[in-house]
Input
Amino acid sequence: MEFSFIFLIILSYLIGSISFAYILTIIFGFGDIRNVGSGNVGATNVLRTGKKSLALLVLILDILKGFIPLTILFIYYQSEYSNILMFFIGSFAVMGHIFPIWLKFKGGKGVATYIGYILGIDYKLGIIFIILWIAVAFLKKYSSLASISSLMTLPICAIFLSYDLQTTCILIFLSTLITIKHSSNIKRLISRSENKIKF
Output
């Protein structure tokens, strides 16, 4: 059990650390995404290349990175591990996206992978996050504000939906970590210099 537990954590992390924004922008001739826009290796920054279809592809793949590890766990390890242990293992996919070993631990902000992760936990949580993100994004036109608002709200929703304390604590930890990754965006939002989304 100990070997498989550690192996699954590493596998989850490695799946999460695949940087599709970095790989696909090079494949499609846009160069290193870290030299584009904000330099962030995520779907929002890929959108700044002007290729909406590529940004959408990266978004979908990043969501799947968070969803697939939990799906594997639920299919093959549900009898071996409790839900909270599977949620803990799956959280390393989000950590992998934020701190990928291949890019010297300097990855994306983790929102899309987090969406996949919470969809893997419960589709209701994922739908709440997505609806709130879309609502704030369309009203305020700031991707970062939409993400931060959703991140802050999700653990509260988990409490109201009667999730156990351990699961809620994992969500609080990941939401806080991803919000901290948005610190530069928060500064720009305060100074009103943050770039708006162009739909």
